[in-house]
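The passage that follows is intended for readers who have already worked through the single-chain material. We present the inputs for a multi-component assembly, then the predicted structure in tokenized form, and finally a short commentary. You are encouraged to pause after the input and sketch how you expect the pieces to fit together before reading on.
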Amino acid sequence: MSHGGGHKWGMAIDLDRCTGCNACMVACSAENNVPITSEDQAGKGRLMHWIRVNRYWQSGWPRPESVHIPVPCMHCGKAPCEPVCPVYATYHNEENLNAMVYNRCVGTRYCANNCPYSVRVFNWFDNKWEGPLDEQLNPDLSVRSRGVMEKCTFCIQRIRRAKEQASTENRALRDGEVVPACVQTCPPGALLFGDLNDPDSEVSRAVRNLRRFRLMEHLGTEPSVTYLKRVKGGGT
Amino acid sequence: MIDRRDFLKFTGLTAFTALFGGCEKLSRTIVPFVIPPENYVLGEALWYATACRMCPAGCGTLVRISEGRAKKIEGNPKHPVNRGKLCARGQAALQGLYHPERLRQPMKLAGARGSGSYTPITWPEALAILMPHLAKIRSEAPESLLMLSGRMRGHANVVADRFMKGFGSPNRVSWEPLGHDAQLAASEAIYGIRDLPEYDLANARYALSFGGDFLETGLSPVHFGRAYGAMRQGRETVRGKLVHFGSRFSMTSANADVYFPVAPGTEGLAALAIAHVLLRDKLLPQAAGGGVWDGGLKEITPEAVSRRTGLPPSAFVETARELAGNRPAIALAGTGPATMGNGTYNLSCVALLNALAGNYGTPGGISFPDRRATLSRFGGDAQLIAPAPESGHGALRAATDRMRKGAFRVALLLEPSNPAFALPPAFRFEEALGHVPFIAAMAPFIDETTAHADLILPTSHFLESWGDDFAPMGHAGNAITLMQPVISVYHDTRAIPDILLAAARELGGPLASALPAGNFREYLANAYAGMEIPFEQALQEGGYFRMKPGPLRPLPKDAGHSMPKASEPAFAGSPDRYPFVLRLYPSNSLLDGRHANLPWLQELPDPLTTAVWRNWVEINPDTALKLGIAEGDGVAVASPAGTIRAHAVLHPGLAPDVVAMPLGQGHGRYGKFAGGRGENPFTLLPDATDAGSGSPAWQSTRVALSKVALKGRLVRFGFPEGQWKPDQFIA
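Having made your guess, compare it with the prediction:
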């Protein structure tokens, strides 16, 4: 794997494999210290999941059809959330990640307002992990405080860990070495992650698939997440 | 952070407590260990292999440990069941481990039974209550001891069995509501082998699902999830097709290419109609099946089945042609048709379709791998170590009747699968418990069942326990999974086998000589001494996975299949008073309710309704319109057995004469995360069973709906880019 210009992280989501089982959501919550809210807060649209599985009905009885679409942060190449942040809390890093600096965030929520994918979630409260549930918290990343926006990071702590491991062993990162929590657990293997700058990586090959599309592509956000369309077999 | 003064204070305390025991209590408030293990580097995580026990599928896991605390669970890539993958429930096991309401020490009943009011006591105090009871009945009437547990596997089951045999009581009942009795009975009837088949979904070109729920809550969801992905997109030029016949639009049906709605309980008939066309039109030359044809299949024409299922005859003809033209093809059945009054019949029909289509032993077909080579090393204990995945419902019924007659003086409840919650009221389980003078439970939580115990001994979480496990299905059954404590015991708890070993030692006599080991780890290490891979190394890998897969078992009944004996589904209530068939299904997150106390799973949206934190009743939008019920309205769901209330979800996938509810919610005594989240659908059921296997029939009643005022509202996860609009589907 030789290519210049560092990494460009991207994800491919094969909707023909996705079953809608939600394993990615719990894996993400466990990995990223995503708080649970409550029924009351959930009712106000304040669930904190960094990845969600949308369900769209396409038709109803007697020929019901629905499709599941997992939606993490798209890590847009031209991210609508970035230019509206007055304090540069959300910015684009050199590896094509749309990153957050939590301690810069002042909670204007402009970014969430400007995100067409609605993947940003806001800490309306200081979320408490009732002991000893806090023993589970991942020490690799912080617990966000009240007034701070958060969202999917493509598990940046796992990217860093893999890079450190590679550099200790004095070698380049291998394809498939960086695995976000959702990708790791996905039972049908619907999620793929890797370096889009590496033309031979699994994810690069997936995004060349003819079934590819991107969410709300017409907005010009240049998402780093590519979807592969679900195929519908024929029949009565 | 601790400052210097605190540090000195705690160091002093540590020295004190080290002398007088109980130091683990202190250590967990500061750092997990004073003397770290050799391989520990601050800030670097360690991974330990063990098994998942969140459902009976038996996946292998790796747990990330940082500073002595479990942080994250992932699938074990070497494990043959799940190959590195894990479902939402498995991921959430950590919340069971670190649950705020887990019992931290033994509890003594302080109020009426069932009240949930307990006083914490110490282990010596608890054993001083339990042991005299056991000693007394052992000398007077040992057979008056009852042991009720969930379905145990591996050497923990051997210890429990030895304990009861050594004690002198034959009264041991294992009850698991997620048993597969109907599938076992169907395999036996059609193939002559009482086992779960392995389905090679990954290599199939055509999969026929009859009420299958294999992607969410069936036999082994992660195993099938992986295979499903491979079936769809794992091959360069082939995309497997999935066709679903079912009476409820489930997550698995949502993934099907074609969904055929059938009347509840006619899933088996649909399979037979397809088999009929296969033979009639000689679509598969090898499918002779002479005996079956004359034995009754001749009469099961697509036209006849069309009237029963509500599907046009062409559906069966076309499906049969597709099946014949796209080999290998397999048929799978799921929990829905299995938990009908004619569950065994439904599953036997599906098994017969597989048999006639010549799917046995082919890649992309079904098979019964021979596990006897693996199990032979355990000799007579093999049946205990890898027991058939049955519900044990008949044995529980017999024991309940005998409880009522006063046959038992002491009952031991070993992490029971909450029968007080997951049984219909007419079973009268709770009332029967009242006839047992002394009940001791060993469980991690107080739930509806353990709340009846006079004494509760807190048990360790499976992530804190030694053990071994055998996945119940397929080729994975040739692997032995080992479990080890990935962290040291967090509360003052003990594992069930260790409690039993200690009790046996104290009771002495033949019981002590039947269970000579000092602790369960020693017992396990002895059991696996002399394996080709040393025990310690196997622990590191998560078990013995390099077993050669055994040959396929020959089919005793391969030559002449016979028609399954026709059986009708039974639904309580008359259609004019109770117009809707109630379809109950295990929730994708909570299953039958066992995970209702885990907040991650409570806050996990249902795959199809996106509802969280509460249960609901699914109604076809046209039906709801006629009844004047709108999205989110309170609805009273009334069956002949009882009435519960829930919020309405207008479900475009559901038939107009069927309503559906998820199981799992409606707990009264399972802690604050589970409490106050709707009412329990099990209370709507009559005490009905599958006629062929005796397992619980969850699809056994009709209901009536009416609008009621109901406090609170059903929260749907929804999504901001747009949600299904009811008027879109109302003609």
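Commentary: Residues 156-168 of chain A form the longest helix (13 residues). Chain A touches chain B through 67 residues (CB under 8 Å). How closely did your sketch match?
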